[in-house]
């Protein structure tokens, strides 16, 4: 029996002109993941960048403004695969004013590649992106020290940069960090080992991406199942679907098995799992992040926005929420503003009750005097919702701990939030109903 190849989602970030787009282009080119028409398009676009040479950055910098200026403005996604693993890459901008784009690209990443120019060393943007990776709870971090060829492949310079990172990493609670000396332009230590770094004994960048362990990144401690829709197929010719009523969605945490007792929140009623359907048919168990349809023992009133949970490691639920927020709108966030809060499959009305502080990403210190959050600011807020929200702390579960704020009039996404751990967990009130 062949096992499916797992997927690694990662993003690249760093300061302007650190070589993020060139690195991705080099990965795709050296990993033989480009089609002939893509290579031809690179050759045709060579005259845009000047010199008549292929510019690997054009594989991700698709906007004309990006190519003319030699910078990344929007988030670009690329896909490739090796025999060991499939990859989804998000190339994110380096400018401070595009911090919101970086947060968007990194929000679903398993790993973040932070590029550092070996000549400039650790600068404010390096610290900013490392801090954001920590806030977004990206489990794995790779610091790729790029343009090592421009500093003579100096081991001393590489060590200086690594030591400077390691001074502030303990404050950010990032445990898995790897440092790799590379030249994205020439391909050294990107896909193949470089003869210029005999002092470096670690894997190449692609070698690390292929082998980093991500299976345990998902939260499997507590079952979480946000209901996306109620499934009532009409197929009278199939006896298996007679009176079929299931709830469909993506498992956001934990494992579910046939016969397992579950609770429907926020109502609190209990039941048990009768069947688990997947695209391939019936199974005995399923786990995060699979998409499934669950058939329950009791015909309960369940709709989109409800959440099924197990009886172990119960989540929190409430209307008064504390969170960290990255603000993404040109108009500053101020207390008293009303928004729509989208959390998993539920959307509720919400009001910002307090801005507790703005985080100075350069120093990692909170500024409690900040009266508002400007675009690209990160801060701590309190928000009150019109209906209870069932959630976990973002550090425990990124799927049930994250949310976005939407402006009601324009439907624009204006903020991305990370919920702090709940003060109290759910207490079953209808235990007698459980089988």
Describe this structure in words.
By secondary structure, this protein is an alpha+beta fold. The protein folds into three domains: 7-217, P-loop containing nucleotide triphosphate hydrolases (Rossmann fold, 3-Layer(aba) Sandwich), CATH 3.40.50.300; 224-309, Elongation Factor Tu (Ef-tu), domain 3; 316-419, Elongation Factor Tu (Ef-tu), domain 3 (Beta Barrel), CATH 2.40.30.10. Helices cover 17% and strands 34% of the residues. It contains nine helices and 23 strands. The chain has helices at 20-30, 36-44, 46-49, 64-69, 99-106, 124-135, 155-168, 205-211, 398-401; strands spanning 7-14, 76-81, 86-91, 111-117, 140-146, 176-181, 224-226, 229-231, 246-250, 255-257, 261-265, 269-278, 281-283, 285-287, 291-296, 307-309, 316-327, 338-343, 346-360, 365-367, 378-391, 402-406, 413-419. A hairpin with a 4-residue loop joins strand 19 and strand 20. The chain is globular and about 70 Å long. It starts with 6 loop residues before the first strand and ends in a 16-residue tail after the last strand. The model is unreliable at 62-74 and 430-435 (pLDDT under 50).
């Amino acid at each position: 029996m062949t096992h499916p190849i797992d997927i690694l989602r990662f993003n690249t970030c760093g300061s302007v002109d650190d070589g993020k787009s060139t690195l991705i282009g080099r990965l795709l080119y050296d990993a033989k993941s480009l089609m002939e028409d893509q290579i031809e398009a690179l050759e045709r676009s060579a005259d845009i960048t000047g010199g008549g040479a292929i510019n690997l950055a054009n594989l991700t910098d698709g906007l004309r403004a990006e190519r003319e200026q030699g910078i990344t403005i929007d988030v670009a996604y690329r896909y490739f695969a090796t025999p060991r693993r499939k990859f989804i890459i998000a190339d994110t901008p380096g400018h401070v004013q595009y911090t919101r784009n970086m947060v968007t690209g990194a929000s679903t990443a398993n790993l973040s590649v932070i590029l550092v120019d070996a000549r400039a060393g650790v600068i404010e943007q390096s610290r900013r992106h490392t801090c954001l990776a920590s806030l977004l709870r990206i489990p794995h971090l790779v610091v790729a020290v790029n343009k090592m060829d421009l500093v003579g492949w100096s081991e001393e310079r590489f060590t200086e940069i690594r030591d400077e990172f390691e001074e502030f990493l303990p404050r950010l609670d990032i445990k898995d960090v790897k440092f790799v000396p590379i030249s994205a332009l020439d391909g050294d230590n990107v896909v193949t080992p470089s003869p210029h770094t005999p002092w470096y004994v670690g894997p190449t960048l692609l070698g690390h991406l292929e082998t980093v362990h991500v299976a345990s990144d998902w939260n499997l401690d507590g079952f979480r199942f946000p209901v996306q829709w109620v499934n009532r197929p009409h197929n009278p010719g199939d006896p298996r679907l007679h009176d079929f009523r299931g709830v469909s969605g993506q498992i956001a945490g934990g494992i579910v098995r046939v016969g397992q007792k579950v609770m429907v929140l926020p109502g609190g009623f209990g039941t048990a799992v009768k069947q688990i359907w997947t695209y391939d048919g019936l199974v005995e168990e399923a786990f995060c992040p699979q998409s499934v349809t669950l058939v329950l023992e009791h015909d309960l009133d369940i709709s989109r926005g409800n959440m099924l949970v197990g009886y172990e490691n119960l989540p929190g639920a409430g209307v008064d929420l504390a969170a960290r927020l990255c603000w993404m709108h040109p108009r500053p966030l101020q207390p008293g503003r009303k928004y729509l809060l989208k959390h998993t499959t539920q959307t509720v009305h919400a009001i910002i009750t307090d801005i507790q502080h703005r985080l100075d990403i350069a120093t990692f210190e909170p500024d409690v005097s900040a009266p508002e959050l400007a675009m690209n600011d990160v801060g701590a807020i309190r928000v009150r919702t019109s209906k209870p929200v069932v959630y976990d702390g973002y550090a425990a579960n990124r799927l049930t701990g994250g949310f976005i704020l939407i402006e009601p009039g324009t439907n624009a996404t204006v903020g991305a939030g990370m919920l702090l751990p709940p003060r109290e967990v759910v207490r079953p009130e209808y235990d007698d109903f459980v089988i």
